[in-house]
From TrEMBL:
Transmembrane segments: 66-87, 93-111
Annotated organism of origin: Psychromarinibacter halotolerans
Keyword Membrane assigned: yes
Origin organism lineage: Bacteria, Pseudomonadati, Pseudomonadota, Alphaproteobacteria, Rhodobacterales
Top-level taxon of origin: Bacteria
Keyword Membrane in annotation: yes
Keyword annotations from UniProtKB, A to Z: Membrane, Transmembrane, Transmembrane helix
Protein name, UniProt field: DUF983 domain-containing protein
Amino acid sequence: MRDTATFEDADPLAERPVKPAMMRGWRRRCPSCGSGSMMRSYLKVRDECPVCGEELHHHRADDGPAYLTILIVGHLLAPLILAVYTHWRPEPLVLAVVFSVGCVALSLYLLPRLKGMIVGLQWAKRMHGFGGVR
């Protein structure tokens, strides 16, 4: 029961736009229609979109979102920790608690969004079975 108004047109090899698919993934929406929810739970991707029926079980995000999350959080918080410590010299326990909470919060925010972006990229590039042509 696929909606024909999505990116899937008559040509199964037609190029799919990457940026909109990744932005829809960032919002945790179906990369095809942008309406249906991509996630069934925090990090579990649905087998198919509830709106357009696009199959999403093909994705292979694996450890990519975790690596990207660590990369982004580390590059944001490490210089910030250095700047805060050299400028204000807070107590080490206060510094550790504040930045630990910030690190966990930022990681929890980014992880599902980055996973959605990777699934959107895979859909747009027809990777791992998203091509529809066997």
